[in-house]
Amino acid sequence: MLVQLLVDNPNSWIIPYVIKLKEEIIKQFNFSVSLIHKHEDVVKGEVLCLLSCEKIFKKLNYNRYNLVVHESDLPSGKGWSPLTWQILEGKNEIPVTLFEAAESVDSGEIYAKEYIKLNGSELLPEIKDQQGIITIKLILFFLENFPMEGKKQVGDTTFYDRRKPEDSKLDINKSIAHQFNLLRVCDNERYPAYFSYKGSEYKIIIEKNRHD
Predict the structure, then answer these.
(1) CATH code for the domain of 30
(2) N or C: which end of the chain has fewer CB within 10 A?
């Protein structure tokens, strides 16, 4: 069986986890696995995994299954950056849903669900590590139980907006404690926290001070 892993941004944070996923699929199931970065390189087969894709994949008829991983309790929390938005809401237990891609965004049948569990101190690299590990776990679970039947989404539908650079802006009149969740989900390279003061903007880099 051919399993295709599509990550349309070759510089995505998820690449190391997808490489690990590829190795595990080969080791556990001896399936053929291809890691691809261009939508047009997808071929007809059994399972396509759409992992952290930045563009919408449209050729859903090419493969029997088109798997997506989304960090919310669908149909609640459809849309962009659900993990980040929920942390900003103060949540420490965040659902991760494996579901079937459909023409309507984030609306397909659900196959499985896991949870990211945080204590409130983790910074983005630690949060992403849990996200990557659970992504691997969910897809391996699907392949172990192949073929699977999904369940229709039930409940109220909500959407998150795409995050913009200004969403990482700090308020200098609020305490660090009050804004810590914002600090911990900022990416020091791609979208760092910043603040404006006396006509200038200042970037904030946040890292844990680790003691051996």
Answers:
(1) 3.40.50.170
(2) C
Mean pLDDT confidence for 139-149:
97
Q: In this structure, is residue 210 part of a structural domain? A: no
Q: Do 101 and 181 have their domain in common?
A: no
Mean per-residue pLDDT, 71-82: 97
Mean pLDDT, the chain, whole residue set: 96
| pLDDT at residue 210 is higher than 80 | no
Q: Are residues 74 and 119 in the same domain?
A: yes
- Given this model, what pLDDT does residue 209 score? 87
Residue span of the structural domain in which 189 resides: 165-204
Collapsed DSSP state (helix, strand, coil) of residue 23: helix
Q: Are residues 151 and 185 in the same domain?
A: no
| Tokens 């844990």 belong to residue | 208
Q: What percent of the chain shows pLDDT beyond 70?
A: 99
Q: Count of domains in the chain? A: 2
Q: Domain check: are 104 and 142 in the same one?
A: yes
Q: How far is CA 85 from CA 57, 78, 114, 163, 211, in A?
A: 24, 11, 18, 9, 30
